[in-house]
């Protein structure tokens, strides 16, 4: 019973977070976010259409500076494009976009330019949260609200609002799905193909996965780490398959590296197990829908975090509330949901998926 209660507790926590955020997103995100209506728990194929009458009311023109990542990864490219589409949905927003970069020094100079130009708000996905903390604090001290996306700063004083995907929740969702699919098979061999092990997000995903599996009496029998690239996914998976002659289930943290993961599985002619992906790419969902590989499900990590950040930055700059909340203002921290996409519900989510 202890395991059952613990597992139910985590699922309820995740569901509660999803419900809390859903009210906010209805009020201040462009586009419909209800999965039943075609969204994806934070991802929306209609990004760019304001949803709330009050949030949609044009106000005084505001200038928002956006600094995002280099689009060297399908998910990263989707972050940038969704942010631009979000801004276009508001007639009172002028978006100033810095060149996408993975260079912390360049990004610091971009934010300093935004500060010097006295923009009304800044939305930033930092290439390194700790490295960008000081310049974000500088912006806040200059009276410019900062919306922090995906990778957290190392100080609470660096951002007015933080928008995050749920990395721990991804692991919980993947582990819970695998537990349910294996139906109490206590001797099941479960493997994990992680991303970059030094990143806190990878550590959080692995921790959630381990704990969810533990609640049904399973452990991670084999684990390798890749680097979020196709090549890294293929190499790590080849290593995994060589050391594990039999598997029952595999969780791969990232659908972009999953292209290489599936290539290695095909090359090894292995199909005795099923796999769960991560992030929610379009090609992964198409494979799930077609049933043409071992990939049976994927866990969404929303690529619309910056789009939500633009919408919230607008509300903050204009002094508008998140209207579906009783409290005034915009919450200072939003964690988006990590739903599992399967063949049964893939049509609900695929319209908002990103291309790997």
UniProtKB/TrEMBL annotation:
Keyword hit for Transferase: no
Region described as Disordered: 32-59
Transmembrane segments: none
Signal peptide (from-to): 1-27
Biased composition (Low complexity): 33-52
Keyword Signal among UniProt keywords: yes
Keywords: Signal
A family per Pfam: Peripla_BP_4
Domain named Periplasmic binding protein: residues: 64-318
Subcellular location field: Cell envelope
Highest taxon in the source lineage: Bacteria
Family: Belongs to the bacterial solute-binding protein 2 family.
The protein, known as: Ribose transport system substrate-binding protein
Species this chain originates from: Paeniglutamicibacter kerguelensis
